[in-house]
Design goal:
Strand order of the largest sheet: 2-1-3
Number of domains: 2
CATH class of the largest domain: Mainly Alpha
Shape: flat
CATH topology of the largest domain: Helix Hairpins
CATH architecture of the largest domain: Orthogonal Bundle
Helix content: 55-70%
């Protein structure tokens, strides 16, 4: 290990783990351990104990440097002109566990009533959305059938293609939105049945 830096410690641990895994898998290295009175199980426990001892090696040191123009640089390696940051460990706490006794319970009939109410609401929304889709389709057909025109100063009638395409696109988007809403409502209704 070089200088005890985080990178060299990590590399050492990775080499050690790779060596241990390879030796554990290779048949010819297993038997010499076995003949010396060691079993693979005891070698495994030795490896686990060693890994637990290396947990402390995983803590990194953080360095901070601010250059002349005010740019801040953070690194896990020492920086020229930088200072080592002394960071307090982050506080940890256990997540609250909701056990079966704390979990709210709803009886079957109440849940069926809630589901029936939800189904009725979703069906009403579906009927409403289908009506809005029909109106949007009629609006699209009207928009496509009525091109945008304007008259020039000398009385000529010309088509405003850009404005026409903009209105058609907006009408198409409205139809697509209602179709997506209908699909989502049908999916929700099928999940309740």
């Amino acid at each position: 290990m070089q200088n005890g830096t985080f990178g060299s410690r990590l590399h050492f641990c990775a080499r050690l783990i790779a060596t241990a895994v390879c030796h554990g898998i290779r048949h010819d290295l297993y038997f010499p351990l076995h003949y010396r009175g060691y079993t693979m199980k005891s070698a495994y426990y030795l490896f686990v104990v060693f890994c637990l001892g290396c947990v402390n090696l995983a803590q990194a040191e953080i360095y901070k440097r601010v250059d002349a123009s005010g740019h801040v640089t953070y690194s896990s390696e020492p920086l020229k002109g930088g200072k080592k940051l002394n960071l307090e460990p982050l506080p940890t706490m256990q997540a609250p566990r909701a056990g079966p006794k704390d979990f709210p319970k709803v009886d079957t009939q109440t849940q069926k009533n809630r589901d029936a109410t939800r189904l009725a609401i979703l069906q009403d929304e579906l009927v409403s959305e289908e009506k809005l889709l029909e109106e949007a389709k009629k609006n699209l057909a009207d928009t496509e059938g009525n091109p945008e025109v304007y008259k020039t100063k000398d009385g000529k009638t010309l088509r405003n293609v850009a404005k026409y395409e903009e209105k058609v696109k907006a009408a198409q988007d409205e139809v697509a939105m209602h179709e997506k809403n209908i699909d989502a409502l049908k999916k929700e209704i099928s999940n309740l049945r």
